[in-house]
Write a structure and sequence with these properties.
This protein has 120 residues and is mainly α. It has two helices and no strands. The protein has one domain. The model has no long low-confidence stretch (mean pLDDT 91).
Length: 120
């Protein structure tokens, strides 16, 4: 078995202090906000965000145009269906009128035949 270590607390405190120093050094080594590299990076990020917004706007416009086109097509289909319904109703009314006229003519012919037989 190894030797028992009594200075574990001191080791941990030293490790924490070194980590703080490394973090502080990394923070101090960071470029300033007005550094050209930082400004260029920020400009690139802004350009990416603007391009993303433009693409999203284009997608929304395309989606709205497609929805409007589908709505127009649906209205045209409904108008066509309504016209077909009206045409069908008109044809049915015409067939019924023709049938009624034929039935009346047949009825009148029977009546005339009956009257002719009665007159003889």
């Amino acid at each position: 078995m190894g030797q028992f270590r009594t200075n574990q607390l001191v080791d941990r405190l030293d490790a924490i202090a070194k980590a703080r120093q490394v973090t502080l050094a990394r923070f101090r080594a960071r470029p300033a906000a007005d550094d050209p590299v930082v400004l260029a990076r920020e400009a690139a990020r802004c350009a990416v965000v603007q391009a993303r917004d433009v693409r999203a706007t284009e997608r929304d416009a395309a989606r709205l145009a497609a929805e409007a086109e589908r709505a127009v097509e649906a209205q045209a289909a409904m108008a066509h269906a309504a016209a077909e319904l009206v045409r069908g109703a008109a044809e049915k009314a015409e067939r019924q009128a023709n049938l009624a006229a034929e039935q009346k003519a047949t009825r009148d012919a029977r009546f005339a035949a009956r009257k002719a037989r009665a007159r003889r």
